[in-house]
Amino acid sequence: MPYNHFVASRKHKLQLALGLEKTILRMILESFGLEKYMDELVDSTTNHLKGMKYGRINTSEPTHGVPAHCDHTTMTLLCQLNEVQVLEIEKN
């Protein structure tokens, strides 16, 4: 039964994330006057959900918690649930 709850919870979170993604994409397209392409864009998009949890580093010194990496997606949703105060984003 716990596994079924996990699957249902994950499915619910995925539906919320997809709804948020569609809302944001619609807002972006509307800002450029391109809302007529929304359905075409959504229909041609494949979604991938990857959950990751990074552990806390036990040090008082500033350090990198996760090595530099690149998310090759249109959109990344990030939820910070602890005392992490910094998120560094590099844009090329």
Briefly summarize what is shown:
This is Isopenicillin N synthase-like Fe(2+) 2OG dioxygenase domain-containing protein. The chain is mostly helical.
Describe the structure.
- Helices cover 39% and strands 0% of the residues.
- By secondary structure, it is an all-alpha fold.
- It has a domain at 2-43.
- The relative contact order is 0.12.
- The mean pLDDT is 76.
- This is Isopenicillin N synthase-like Fe(2+) 2OG dioxygenase domain-containing protein.
Q: Could you give the topology of this structure?
A:
Layout: H1 2-31, H2 38-43
Protein name: Isopenicillin N synthase-like Fe(2+) 2OG dioxygenase domain-containing protein
Defining key terms:
92 residues, mainly alpha, 0% strand, Isopenicillin N synthase-like Fe(2+) 2OG dioxygenase domain-containing protein, IPNS-like_sf
What gross morphology would you assign? Answer: flat
Number of strands: 0
Helix share, percent:
25-40%
Strand content: under 5%
SS summary, helix count: 2
Q: How big is the Rg?
A: 17 Å
Give me the strand/helix succession.
HH
The major pleated sheet works out as: none
